Amino acid sequence: MLTEFELIARYFNRPPAPDSRTALGVGDDCALMTPAPGMQLAISSDMLVCGRHFFPDADPAALGHKCLAVNLSDLAAMGAQPIAFTLALALPQADPEWLAPFSQGMLALADRHGCELIGGDTTKGPLTISITVFGEVPPQQALRRDAARVGDDIWISGSLGDARLALAGYRNELALSDTELLQAAPRMHEPTPRVELGVALRGIAHAAIDISDGLVGDLGHILERSHHGATLNVDALPPGNVLQQREVDLRRRFTLAGGDDYELCFTAPARLREAVEKAARAAGAEVARVGSIDREPGLRLVDAAGEALQLDLASFDHFRT
Ligand code: ADP
Ligand code: MG
What is the widest separation between alpha-carbon atoms in the chain? Predict the structure, then answer.
């Protein structure tokens, strides 16, 4: 049986990267970090609990990836560059067969973004994974939820709904073919945080949020904090590759109120459309312009022709908890 210290040493302690901001990493009472002069720290925590946020038999490598990805997604939505993270783990047992792929999945994503694991806590208990990420962003350039302005375009990165479609398959809410499930599942299990896009949108976008609970709810946070309303062209929302093949009603429901997409929803002045597209290309992300911020409060859903749509979102996604 591994002791707590052996476990940390084996799976979570690595030599610091050469260009690291970490003066002291895993092993002491605290880590020491040296932030770049003049930068602000962006800090966010996200906890994933077994049975609530993932299935007990979840693939450990994908789970390691996802736990960090959802945290990096918060940094992306702020326009912050990841620098470090801490990991608090409650584990039912110290199982090397689980710990090895879990830490590899997590650290591979961390390395891709130059985000160092600098500390954490490990305890016995029901499987719970809590991460705090640290990023940096120049003062005044963070993409805040309260910064949308009347006349801004609303943009979405990537595509929406395939993660929700995979979940519907697992829950037998919908019949999915094996191929459909195979193609949609990675969107649920291994989301791609839009870190490069978030950073590229500094100085261009006004407000941003990452879509974790579904577009309507998450855009709602921007509207509430910015004290504005919006019009959303539902037929401009980009569906995932698998959802794309489904009927219009399901496409609308799952792009509007799916969840677990981890795409960015952001607003930017209409005069900066070309700058947005250029930033997205440089960041390797697709972006779609899907609506606008209005003075009139509330969210108006329209179709491609601009006709109002009456969609009762609460009723078709009642199974979300
Ligand atoms: P303390 O007694 O101060 O809580 P611990 O014995 O819990 O310290 O941890 C020892 C060291 O290992 C600390 O530097 C802590 O940050 C680090 N650590 C503990 N658990 C993890 C983990 N899951 N991942 C990374 N570092 C960890
Ligand atoms: Mg401790």
Answer: 64
Q: Is the pTM above the cut of 0.85? A: yes
Where along the chain do its domains lie?
A: 4-137, 145-302
Q: Which of 22, 26, 89 to mutate to test ligand 1, by most ligand atoms within 8 A of the CB atom?
A: 26
What would the pLDDT profile of 240-275 be if each residue is shown by its tens digit? 999 999 999 999 999 999 999 999 999 999 999 999
Give the residue among 187, 190, 192, 221 at the shortest CA–CA distance from 207.
221
Instruction: List the CATH code of the domain at 145-302.
Output: 3.90.650.10
Q: Which residue carries 């899907």 as its tokens?
A: 290
Q: From ligand 1's centre to the CA of 117, what distance in Å?
A: 11
Q: Please write the tens of the pLDDT for every residue from 127-167.
A: 999 999 999 999 999 999 999 999 999 999 999 999 999 99
Nearest atom in ligand 1 to 25's CA: 14
pLDDT digit string, tens, across residues 39-56: 999 999 999 999 999 989
CATH code of the domain occupying 4-137:
3.30.1330.10
32 CA from centroid of ligand 1 (Å): 13
- Pick the residue whose CA is nearest to atom 24 on ligand 1: 120
| Structure letter (DSSP) for residue 184 | H
> Does the Cβ of 117 fall within 6 Å of ligand 1?
yes
Provide the CA 115 distance to its chain's centre, in angstroms: 16
